[in-house]
Design a protein that fits this description.
Rossmann fold, binds 1-O-pyrophosphono-5-O-phosphono-alpha-D-ribofuranose, 6 helices, binds uracil, alpha/beta
Length: 209
């Protein structure tokens, strides 16, 4: 069964508190998406396997550690996941990056696919799927379906804010996927928006509304 890790960290509460405010500027909002994604990835990378390597310090030889095997692949869901990718690439610059294009049909709330481009060796890598918002869960479920259809087995899902409804849907559809959440909010409204939430993440990042 999937692990659901809720960060519940003071820095994340503080930064998301600023992001929730309706008068926070586009630039500040975008920068905070990047910062909170970095904080979540710190936890999401906690149990990556390590291997010993010999290094020479200015004083002596010693055994240090490095991440074993192929490095990660991060897969932001367009559009809003892109700025989470920037944050994680600050910490893990060697990660490869794939992109999934999905948007929610605002009538049916069902996701519509429009793009998929992954590194050729994605199936050999651990994949972090990134999207700030886990609302109904439809986009996350379809994104991971798209990856699994292409042979990907190891997936974690990282989001800034989740609704309980979305977490349940994702756990049920993909019980093998661990879910990392900045803050778990209360519920969805009748239009499928997270309450209290922060509004439409893509629009707030790109200033499109
Ligand atoms: C938002 C968000 C998620 C999705 C979450 O994207 O970034 O991808 O909604 O909702 P769900 O859990 O109910 O599927 P949106 O569809 O607004 O697309 P955008 O990023 O292009 O604005
Ligand atoms: N997508 C968003 O960007 N925000 C929500 O609250 C729900 C879906």
């Amino acid at each position: 069964m999937a692990d659901v890790i809720i960060m519940d960290h003071p820095l994340i509460h503080h930064k998301l508190g600023i992001m929730r405010r309706k008068d926070t500027s586009t630039k500040e909002f975008r920068d905070l998406v990047t910062e909170v994604a970095m904080l979540i990835s710190y936890e999401a990378t906690r149990n990556l396997p390590l291997k010993d390597i010999e290094v020479e310090t200015p004083l002596t030889k010693t055994i240090a550690k490095e991440i074993a095997g192929k490095k990660l692949c991060i897969v932001p869901i367009l559009r809003a996941g892109l700025h989470m990718a920037d944050g994680i690439l600050n910490l893990i610059p060697n990660a490869k990056v794939g992109h999934l294009g999905l948007y929610r049909n605002e009538e049916t709330l069902e996701p519509v696919e429009y793009f998929c481009k992954l590194p050729s060796d994605a199936a050999d890598r651990e994949i972090f799927v990134l999207d700030p918002m886990l609302a109904t869960g439809g986009s996350a479920v379809v994104a991971i379906d798209m990856l699994k259809k292409r042979g990907i087995k190891k997936v974690r899902f990282l989001c800034l804010i989740a609704a309980p409804e979305g977490v349940e849907r994702l756990k049920k559809a993909h019980p093998d996927v661990d879910i990392y959440i900045g803050i778990l909010d209360e519920r969805l409204n009748e239009k499928g928006y997270i309450l209290p939430g922060l509004g439409d993440a893509g629009d707030r990042i790109y200033g499109t509304k």
